[in-house]
Protein 1
Amino acid sequence: MEKLTVQSEFEIYEGLQELPEDIQDLMSLAVETRKNAYAPYSNFKVGAAILLANKEVVVGNNQENASFPSGLCAERVAIYHAGARFPEVRIKAIAITASSDKYVTSAPIPPCGACRQAIAEYEINQESPIPIYFMGAVGKVMKSNSLKGLLPLLFDKNNFI
Ligand code: THU
């Protein structure tokens, strides 16, 4: 029997102002996008913004539905939006923010497991890490240098192709 230890490292920024300028802009856009989330059932609004290598930025927010499972998270709306508009362009960074008038969202809120798996597909295809920044409505921002840091031992198409 062997043991495998998997470690992930995160950077923690005290606030938006500590981030590099392009990421501040990206996170500010995620905040703006968050405001347009359609979340009447959860009262939990999420916004995501994706910076691409061609300098384009695409956004997404959560879109809920009266049939609850038919809704979609902000991160997947954003990454599929990027895939639909710029299929061959490398993703440089993703910024994510969440807020709620019902729950406390002052700590960084990381993407859910399904969104991590969705983002993984793009990181694997582009063969370079995607830095992911995430925060709540206010306060600290956390950064993972790659999707893999958030989803070790991910399900990878290269395992079965
Ligand atoms: N949500 C996201 O948009 N991203 C996540 O990573 C987790 C959850 C959304 C889904 C749903 O509309 C609401 O937040 C509450 O779960």
Protein 2
Amino acid sequence: MSPDARTNSDLDTAWTVRWIRRSAEVLAAERAALNTLDRDIGDGDHGENMDRGFQAVLPKLDGLADDATPSTVLKLLATTLISTVGGAAGPLYGTAFLKAAGATAAVGTLDGMALVALLTAARDGIVLRGKAGAGDKTMIDAWSPAVDAAQAAQSAGGSAPAVLTAAADAAARGAQDTEPLVARKGRASYLGERAIGHRDPGAQSTALLLRAAVDATRVTE
Ligand code: ADP
Ligand code: MG
């Protein structure tokens, strides 16, 4: 058994499960920081909401059937988020992962093209549900650059992990780039110019989730 992490370019059901477990770990660690971002321009519960939803899915992952696919796992996450996370983020992320499950149905292993389809469907689901556009200072400002970067990496022949890395890097930049914006959707839109200088919490949680997806490609055996 080597302590070195190796990159597994087959993004299968086990990867999907690792993605959720890693997300739960990161969201628990960042819970207070996400609450603080939401306290600045919202009601202070975004970290709590995300942590609650991802903790709720963990025990269910242990009960997955042997023939579970990435799509089955994403659907389980989606339904859990919809039923346990309140506020704006629950239905938005729930819809995102439900659409992602639909876009990857019946595929056992996700290649770069399938990942682009997954990310695009997630982003489009959020737009359908929340009607936010680019620059409205929402999680879309992390998702949309992530989708564009994933598409570009896939077109350039990047592997599935390379596609995910491009997406995560772009989401992190997108989250940072929400700081100077005025919000046009969600609670932060009530603040007008007072939202300037604060990072959008949902864009930040999206960046964390996509970074967790990259972390999940590194398997230690
Ligand atoms: P609530 O605002 O109900 O307290 P959360 O704090 O959990 O819910 O989530 C807030 C985040 O939800 C925001 O930071 C923003 O990224 C996202 N959000 C809110 N409204 C929308 C929308 N219409 N479209 C996309 N994202 C949105
Ligand atoms: Mg909130």
